[in-house]
Amino acid sequence: MDSTTRTTPDNGSSRPRVALVTGGSGGIGGAVARRLAADGMAVAVHYAGGAASAEAVVDSITAAGGTAVALPGDVAEPADMTGLFDAVEKRFGGLDSVVNTAGIMLLAPLAEMELDAFDRMHRVNVRGTFVVSQLAARRLRPGGSLINFSTSVTRLQQPGYGGYAATKGAVESMTLILARELRGRDVTVNAVAPGPTATRLFVEGKSEELIARIASAAPLERLGTPEDIAEAVAFLAGPGGRWVNGQVLFSNGGIA
Q: What is the pTM assigned to this prediction?
């Protein structure tokens, strides 16, 4: 599997914990990768089509003194993901956290959504989460964590989001059940459900008035940032989150 790797020199310390971030070339995924690296984890930054963005994330991590590798693959293809997990284990010796940020969002009222659009979301968001979660369940070391991504829209019931929210409802169900299935493994399984977050993809195509209206919906009266979401992930992946298991953590500034 092709990869881009940059590391700092070995300082003789013990091998760091290892994280794999799918969708690590995206706004939230990149912030998660950088945040986990700041906690001292070696990070595999997965990408599907954004090689340059993934390499930029790797560069930012190594510039800050961390260790990172960029690796490609289709999250919905078991052969690709098996190769990805193999590459991470070969490079770093094991795997402690898997953060599954990879996903797509296509919006339309249910009566108007093309079935192809729904199938595309299902393939990445549901099948992709299933494939990655299955491999994580088999390979995470004791003390490890799997963190999938849902959305606050599953509770907000906003028109136009029916197809997308349906895929994330499936993600929540898989996540909560897998947490119970891994009894005795010392591996936590949770999901993070962001609210509106100021990524390039979120802002693209929206007027300033619409963005301001969405931001004002939260009691904190702002959009979330990728770094806000990364903090929630870092908590679940870190020692402070070891007693949190089988939960959906809503990171949305209080939107109800």
A: 0.92
Name the 3-class secondary structure at 69: strand
Does residue 6 sit in helix, strand or coil? strand
- 164 is a catalytic site residue: yes
Say which CATH superfamily domain 16-192+226-247 falls into.
NAD(P)-binding Rossmann-like Domain (3.40.50.720)
pLDDT band of 149, cuts 50, 70, 90: very high
List all residues 6 or more positions away from 82 whose beta carbon is below 8 Å from its beta carbon.
135
* Annotated catalytic residue, options 85, 92, 161, 164: 164
Nearest CA to 55 out of 81, 33, 40, 86 is that of 33
CB 94 within 8 A of CB 109: no
Share in percent of the chain as helix, strand, coil (round to 5): 45, 15, 40
